[in-house]
Amino acid sequence: MIETIELRGRDENRLVADVAGPSAASPVVLLHGGGQTRHSWHTTLRALGEREWRAYALDLRGHGESDWAADGDYSLDAFAGDAKRVARSVGRPPVLVGASLGGAASLVAAAEAGDPPVASALILVDIAHRIEPDGRDRITSFMSEHMADGFASVDEVADAIQRYNPHRPRPRDLAGLRKNLRQRPDGRWVWHWDPQFLRGPRGGADETRTSVVDPGRLVSAAEAIVVPTLLVRGRQSDLLSQEGAKELLELIPHAEFADVAGAGHMVAGDRNDLFNTAIIEFLERARSRGALPMPGT
């Protein structure tokens, strides 16, 4: 059974989460990528709950049903601060699973939290300190293309996604897609996130501290990671290259690696079956080594 709850972020901002699994089980917090919502983790949430993890799929600030930032602060500091606040609210340090933006926030939160720690393990999904400019620009172009005028129908949205991700079959049932959209009073459909998010971070004079893209900070964070770590890459990703993944694995020498065939940057959405298998097997290995608690402990 999935329940929906409200949590609080760094600035007391309201964050909405779906939760599955036994209430006393070890927690896993799932943080989606920029422009997505918590619903991108739907099958992963269920799979983790069925395997006796307490899984939380979060709408990031400015996304889905979570609060928009009144001051427009969509910086790495803000997202990582929200991740730390949520991680400290779930009873014990969770496994942090972050895709893209959510992964960068999870990496910084885990590395910079100090005592007490906020993560028992870390799973980074198609993100590293180094991202490819062409892939970044393609994502930004797709997100901004219909930001002002929206779409006339959900079918039109599905067509746009098909053009962006031609290797992924177009969904026949568009009910799931509607969860990533909101309908304006004029009847047009727009993405379910704050347009200010794409216009750049706010809330700090030091651009190095407020930028979501900060390779130097992410390198320092990676070097500080001591918890069990898995890097998952979509084999067809245009954002995280093989070289970028290799560099991150050198920065986190104990990290494991999963290269998911048939998946691009949206790994969980492209090949959810392989993605779920990869992360659950990693978690079970960590449990068997005693690095993570067994069910019921």
Topology (elements, then pairings):
Elements: E1 3-8, E2 14-20, E3 27-31, H1 42-50, E4 54-58, H2 76-87, E5 95-99, H3 101-112, E6 121-125, H4 133-145, H5 154-164, H6 175-178, E7 181-183, E8 189-191, H7 196-199, H8 207-210, H9 215-224, E9 229-234, H10 242-251, E10 256-260, H11 267-270, H12 272-288
Parallel strand pairs: 3-4, 3-5, 5-6, 6-9, 9-10
Antiparallel strand pairs: 1-2, 2-4, 7-8
Query: How is the main sheet built?
Result: 8 strands, mixed
Instruction: Please tell me how large the radius of gyration is.
Output: 18 Å
Instruction: Report the count of strand segments.
Output: 10
Q: Total domains, how many?
A: 1
- Portion of residues in beta strands equals 15-25%
Q: Under CATH, the topology is which? A: Rossmann fold
Name the CATH architecture: 3-Layer(aba) Sandwich
**CATH top level label:** Alpha Beta
Our measurement of the CA-to-CA distance between the termini, rounded to an integer number of angstroms, reads 22 Å
- How helical, in percent, are the residues? 25-40%
> CATH homologous superfamily name?
Alpha/Beta hydrolase fold, catalytic domain
Strand line-up across the major sheet: 1-2-4-3-5-6-9-10
Spans where pLDDT lies below 50 across 5 or more residues: 203-210
Q: Name the overall outline.
A: globular
SSE run: EEEHEHEHEHHHEEHHHEHEHH
- The assembly state of the depicted protein chains is single chain
Which structural class is indicated by helix and strand composition? alpha/beta
Number of helices: 12
Task: Tell me, rounded to a whole number, the average pLDDT.
Answer: 92
